[in-house]
Amino acid sequence: MAETLQLFVGNIVHCEKPYEVSSLEKGFVALKGNKIVSVGDATSLANFRATIEVKYNILEYILKDSQVLIPGLIDTHVHACQYSNVGLGMDLKVVPWLWEHTFPLELKCKDIEYSRRCYDAVVKKALDYGTTTASYNAAIYTDSALVLADSVIKHGQRALVGKVNHTRQGPDYYVETHKEFIDETRRFIEEIQKKKSSLVQAIITPRSPTCSDLENMELLIGLGKEFGLRVQTHLKESLEGFKVFTTPPVKNPNCKTKIFPKKTIYAHCVHLSEEEIQALVNSESTVSHCPNSNVNLRSGICDVRALIKAGIHVGLGTDVSGGCSLSLMNAMRYAVACSNFLSFGKDNYEPIGWRDAFYMATLGGAKVLDLDKEIGNFEVGKEFDAVIIDMNVKDGPIDYLEDCSALETLQKFIYAGDDRNVVSVYVAGRKVK
């Protein structure tokens, strides 16, 4: 019996190189199982069909002219446990927001049923927006974090899931003991491995470099090295939070960069000096840019252009619930807007544009999470994580009055689209929306 091959035919847009957007008008992507086996333009489609018709049963999907196939969107920083607080406390800055809204909410995740309702909602909504991969922060509770992993597996998303570590500089009701800090993280990692999911992996998640003493932090990083896991944390999010929640990576003798392994994922990085940027370059660390959150909580505006020029991989994070939406379209808009703000009054400043934002939401995000060998674009051999967008949908956010090219359709999606324009979502070749 012949194997089945899926063939997507229509307008295709992805990034083959950093910060460059490629368009295939009436092109095709073919996949066998979860892997991409061929990509081509309209002129090579007939020859490709002829070579496969004898070998495979072909399931063909013809996109409408108003539709575009793009890679799955990648959220490099989101607090799943904070979802029910979306839109609350936006009149506060980071530190009071954490104490008045965030810590009391994360405490609720000790309740497994609450966690299940929250995490199911987060994962489903993220998929609705076209987020095929997310790097999640859960709460400090191991069993709650495992529920998040189960939700990801159940709904077919791809994710890094982290149990947050926090032993100090928080309320007494929401910190771990020194023993829990390590023992529970080990239990979390081992339980994730038992699930044997190809889509979900654990990630080491200290809340910030100063939320534990140096000895415990070194033990935690050692645990990550033992299991071969990435590390994610917050860094220099706001000026008011330096003493409480963030640490300069090179200046504080109590928490030196050397304790963090190479390729650590740092969220925010709004207030970095040139010396600190170079420290990230030297450690091959990556940055999750969270523009919506940075504006909402008045943390500042990250100079993404400076990070890019330095050679740092930058992705986008929604940072819910500091960010008020799980939409990466929203994150792309805010990234462009914030860069425009920084350019005002500067003759030689080149702000990022929609192409840069799209790269950061796809291949750039994959590089930040060290997943670019598996996902991020439509390269042969990679897994098929993809989204079909359509800007001509009934009751959509805008009226589609004139035909658009593939690149014009993508621009409309970035600046004006929402979940109604995400008509199909695929993760590892499986349709999940």
UniProtKB/TrEMBL annotation:
GO terms for biological process: guanine catabolic process. One of its GO terms (cellular component) is cytosol. Its cofactor is Zn(2+). The keyword Metal-binding applies. Keywords: Hydrolase, Metal-binding, Zinc. One of its GO terms (molecular function) is guanine deaminase activity. Residues 68-432 form the Amidohydrolase-related domain. PANTHER family: GUANINE DEAMINASE. This is Amidohydrolase-related domain-containing protein. It comes from Photinus pyralis. The lineage of its organism: Eukaryota, Metazoa, Ecdysozoa, Arthropoda, Hexapoda.
